[in-house]
Design goal:
The protein is mainly beta.
């Protein structure tokens, strides 16, 4: 009991040392147009919506320890009207759950030791047309290494991290194309990871730019025998960029561009680009 009391007292002391830097932005974008069935030109209507939320909780726990936690949630669907005026079913257009926690030891050295953990998933998995799975698949990423804060000026920050990383992927009820039997699958990777986070305000802080670049070079793979081509050995790249502009207090414009490269999924670079005008609300 004494040890538990000591640990609780330590946690309480760390929590009270400095206030948390909290930020929560919620955005809703809508796009709708429709045509009567006698409209000339073959035009079709469309209904689309997207809900996104970006949260930050950061705190200098003490002189030698910094905690930074980010959470990104997004979900959107689209429905298209055919030339006869009939609306199709809603199809998912965006879906993301991304939580990352980084603990950095600010010891005053040239670089700071760090540990990090990340969870990535989606709300609704429809990759299999015959089965709906929720919160699937799940990717867990852990890293241990060194970090350096290259820039820190007002709201502009640039931090890079380099270390050893582990990746686990859990996929439920995967259909085997040969046996036609469903089973849960998991895989494990280990290798070198590099990440850079950059954020800065623009145009008198009416516009903000956020960028995150993640590179992962796998050194081992638990299921390498299932990949005789060795695609798992290729460098994985993830680069997210967001430009957010506040038109008024509740109206915003977002431009996002995501570049992904994972040779196990596709041998070409994948790009996702979104331009949205919608409503925004800062909860904190």
């Amino acid at each position: 009991m004494t040890r538990i009391g000591t640990m609780l007292a330590l946690v309480a002391a760390l929590a009270a040392a400095e206030p948390w830097n909290l930020a929560v932005d919620a955005n809703l974008t809508l796009n709708q147009n429709a045509y009567s069935d006698n409209w000339e030109g073959g035009a079709t209507g469309q209904l689309a919506y997207a809900l996104t939320s970006n949260s930050l909780a950061e705190k200098q726990l003490n002189e030698k320890m910094n905690s930074r936690n980010t959470l990104k949630l997004a979900f959107g669907q689209t429905s298209t009207q055919d030339t006869a005026g009939t609306w199709g079913s809603l199809v998912k257009s965006t879906d993301e759950i991304n939580f990352e926690s980084v603990l950095r030891l600010t010891l005053g050295f040239i670089v700071d030791p760090f540990v990090s953990a990340q969870l990535q998933s989606q709300f609704w998995d429809k990759s299999d047309a015959t089965l709906s799975r929720y919160f699937n698949p799940v990717d867990l990423n852990e890293a241990l290494g060194v970090a350096r804060q290259l820039v820190k000026h007002d709201k502009t920050e640039l931090v890079s991290r380099l270390g050893f990383g582990l990746k686990q992927r859990f996929d439920r009820q995967v259909m085997d194309t040969l046996t036609q039997i469903r089973a849960d699958k998991s895989s494990n990777y280990g290798g070198v990871t590099f990440a850079t986070d950059f954020t800065t305000p623009l145009a008198q802080e009416k516009i903000s730019y956020t960028s995150k670049l993640v590179l992962f070079q796998a050194l081992f793979f638990s299921d390498a025998a299932a990949d005789p081509a060795g695609n798992w050995k290729a460098l994985d790249v993830g680069w997210d960029n967001t430009v957010a502009a506040s038109i008024t207090k509740y109206v915003m414009v977002n431009l996002t561009a995501q570049l992904l490269y994972d040779k196990e999924i596709d041998g070409k670079l994948r790009l996702k680009e979104t331009l949205a005008l919608g409503l925004t609300y800062k909860l904190i």
